[in-house]
């Protein structure tokens, strides 16, 4: 009896695993940040950025995904729309390495093996951990010592995806990350010359295009189509 139960569990799990469609993809586009330096446009890609992603299609509406993103960011008060920032004249550059996991929800059923379910807009919600440089001290005037720092963010995004040809699809996506830190631009009260932070935490964004390859045996909901 015990062996029969184990066999049934194994077969059921294997059927679920094999019955899914998986996706891998690469993204290229632009990143930007909103914080205490420079512009405050939430969609203003100004640094070349990229990502690699993996998806597990749970059903035609829901996909679970993991993403690694390489996101350089910069800000310059010269580009700001206030006289205060322009007169202040601060600027910075940083690089974010991010790992994120989350859920993609399709507004319409999406099935690469179907003839009429091959495009949809979608929304995305994730949790992310990211690494970046943070200013720690000022050994000499205007010469800073930096260290690597890890924090967390809550990415949310919107996008559109469509079948391209065969097993290939594409998507266009904008993703916004709310962080729990205010030092992506090196702002810190520990260093007087960098004590320019406001009352809000920083954001960083990615807007780009993805090319996606689908593989795995078609799921049971696509059979017969």
Automatic annotation (TrEMBL):
Ranges of residues in domain DUF6089: 6-222
Species annotation: Polaribacter batillariae
Xref: InterPro entries: DUF6089, OMP/PagP_B-barrel
Record protein name field: DUF6089 domain-containing protein
Domain of life: Bacteria
């Amino acid at each position: 009896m015990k062996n029969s139960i184990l066999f049934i569990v194994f077969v059921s799990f294997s059927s679920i695993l094999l019955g899914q469609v998986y996706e891998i993809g690469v993204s290229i586009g632009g990143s930007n940040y909103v914080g205490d330096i420079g512009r405050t446009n939430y969609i203003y890609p100004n640094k070349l950025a990229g990502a690699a992603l993996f998806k597990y299609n749970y059903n035609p509406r829901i996909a679970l995904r993991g993403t690694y993103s390489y996101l350089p960011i910069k800000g310059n008060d010269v580009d700001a729309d206030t006289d205060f920032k322009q007169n202040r004249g601060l600027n910075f550059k940083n690089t974010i390495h991010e790992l994120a996991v989350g859920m993609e929800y399709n507004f319409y059923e999406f099935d690469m093996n179907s003839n009429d379910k091959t495009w949809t807009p979608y929304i995305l919600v994730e949790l992310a951990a990211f690494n970046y440089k943070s200013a720690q001290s000022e050994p000499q005037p205007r010469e800073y010592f930096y260290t690597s720092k890890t924090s967390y963010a809550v990415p949310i995004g919107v996008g559109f995806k469509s079948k391209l040809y065969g097993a290939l699809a594409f998507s266009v996506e904008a993703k916004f990350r709310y962080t729990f830190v205010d030092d992506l631009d090196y702002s810190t009260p520990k260093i007087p010359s960098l004590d320019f932070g406001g009352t809000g935490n920083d954001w960083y964004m990615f807007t780009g295009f993805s090319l996606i390859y689908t593989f795995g045996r078609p799921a049971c909901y696509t059979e017969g189509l």
